Write the structure tokens for this entry.
Amino acid sequence: AQSVTQLDSQVPVFEEAPVELRCNYSSSVSVYLFWYVQYPNQGLQLLLKYLSGSTLVKGINGFEAEFNKSQTSFHLRKPSVHISDTAEYFCAVSDSRASKIIFGSGTRLSIRP
Amino acid sequence: GAGVSQSPSNKVTEKGKDVELRCDPISGHTALYWYRQSLGQGLEFLIYFQGNSAPDKSGLPSDRFSAERTGGSVSTLTIQRTQQEDSAVYLCASSLGAAPPLHFGNGTRLTVT
């Protein structure tokens, strides 16, 4: 069975600073990995995904994530954040048979001007 | 339809009553998921459908919860004898093929008084 751990429940950063949101997973099989974002009072939407191939994945709004199999991690990064990035970010994992998709507990990113 | 549609958007019910939550997935999407999002918590997996069958019901919290899907389309999540701890936002998502991302609905906010 898969599981996902998001190590930080809240991450405050200053505008234009870099940010990293951490995600670790466990699985006994090959995995697909995802980051979803939930802006205030909105539904969840896909930010980026790793299915196979290059371990560095680029998503929308300047975000990227790197799949590290040896460390079982899929950390999300952005070199310079904007106020509009204020949201809750969820890491998710499914096995390569693409069945059940498990979400982490979320990381609330707050941007200070 | 253009997206995943959930109804009702809000539901207030008295403790002990039964409720039905409906999800209309994106046309042609074979996979359908139900999640529960409680205040300050992540997304809790409830159940997953592939077509009309549910290979994984492991997330249903108790036997008061059940779900069905008919015609490979609409799904209904039923909660019997609701309790206050059932209060949450219930999210439905659908996906196409073997490599999701998930497309989420806006959720049903259930309040049990």
Summary: The two ends of chain B are 33 Å apart (CA to CA). The interface with chain A takes residues 31, 33, 35, 41-43, 45, 48, 50, 55-56, 58, 91, 93, 95, 97-102, 104-107 of chain B (CB under 8 Å). Residues 15-95 of chain B form a domain with the Immunoglobulin-like fold (CATH 2.60.40.10).
